[in-house]
Amino acid sequence: MSMLLAAALAASPTLAQMRWDRRVLIVAAPSAQDPALAEQRRLLGSWTAKCDDRDLTIVEVIGDQVRGAGDTAPALRRKFRLPAAFTAILIGKDGGEKLRSAHPFPTAVLEQTIDVMPMRKAGHR
């Protein structure tokens, strides 16, 4: 492993390290050319500020690459039983799975789901 790669991995916290601090949207796709991945990115594109407001980190698992977390693709695929096809999963701050879909999530669905979560309602965002 190169020093640069090791530094990049060390810079991103793992999902376990994000627990109780961040909600996580896992977006998994077999390749960067996946049309559902492109659609999910398009939907989230103008929503970035609201992600921060909702303590949401987006983690992409594309093929054997992970962006947004220090975990490995095989570890995330195993833990969340990710199929070879597109999958989006919303993980709460408690580490529990809140939503799962084989289709891109509309941002309204993410907002509504997050906004009724107990920690969000309690003011812990």
Question: How would you summarize this macromolecular structure in one to three sentences?
Answer:
Helix content is 42%, strand content 22%.
Helix/strand layout:
Blueprint: H1 3-11, H2 15-18, E1 23-29, H3 35-45, H4 48-53, E2 56-62, E3 65-67, H5 73-79, E4 87-91, E5 97-101, H6 107-115, H7 118-124
Parallel strand pairs: 1-2
Antiparallel strand pairs: 1-4, 2-3, 4-5
Element-level helix/strand string: HHEHHEEHEEHH
Order of strands side by side in the largest beta sheet?
3-2-1-4-5
CATH class: Alpha Beta
Overall number of domains: 1
| CATH homology superfamily name | Glutaredoxin
Structural class: alpha+beta
Overall geometry comes to globular
- Roughly how many Å is the radius of gyration? 14 Å
Distinct helical segment count: 7
Main pleated sheet: 5 strands, mixed
Q: Detail the poorly predicted runs.
A: none
Mean pLDDT: 87
User: What fraction of the residues are assigned to beta strands by DSSP?
Assistant: 15-25%
- Give the CATH architecture: 3-Layer(aba) Sandwich
Provide a descriptive summary of the structure in words.
This protein has seven helices and five strands; from the N terminus they run ααβααββαββαα. With 125 residues, it is an alpha+beta fold. The termini are far apart.
Features:
alpha+beta; Glutaredoxin; 5-stranded mixed beta sheet; 7 helices
